Amino acid sequence: MTLESWFLFSIPVTRGDDYESCERASVLGGQIYHHPLHPNGAFFISEPLIAANKAAGVVATRSGIILTLGKVSGSNEMIFPGIRDYVLTGLPQDPTLAPAPATPEPAKV
């Protein structure tokens, strides 16, 4: 799955009803492609990010989805130059992460 026009933001994460010890988690939003449940170009927000493989340009989410990072949202890159490297180097590195093979488009009749 590939995420295009993506941006990084953080969300509060609580454990049960304990809102006072709230942590923050990094997530990505953007247009998803080759997702089995969403049409190409649909808006998508990931689960919290847990790992990356900088060499492959991919990140893993808490739910186990592997996302290939496409182009960064233009406004996100303007506000935070170098955001791609920040995301790919700021997470624990897992060299076994690799992009999933793209699902071929159905043949047009």
What is the number of E strands?
A: 6
Gap between N and C termini: 25 Å
Largest sheet: 6 strands, mixed
> pLDDT below 50 for ≥5 consecutive residues: which ranges?
none
Number of helices: 2
> What's the overall average pLDDT, rounded?
88
The Cα radius of gyration reads 15 Å
Apparent shape: globular
Q: Order of strands in the sheet with the most strands?
A: 3-2-1-6-5-4
In N-to-C order, the SSE pattern is EEEEEEHH
Oligomer: single chain
- Structure classification: mainly beta
Summed up:
The chain has 109 residues and is mainly beta.
Overview of this protein structure:
It is a single chain. This protein is mainly β and 109 residues long. 13% of the residues lie in helices and 43% in strands. It is built from 2 helices and 6 strands, in the order ββββββαα. It has a 6-stranded mixed sheet. A hairpin with an 8-residue loop joins β2 (18-33) and β3 (42-45). The mean pLDDT is 88.
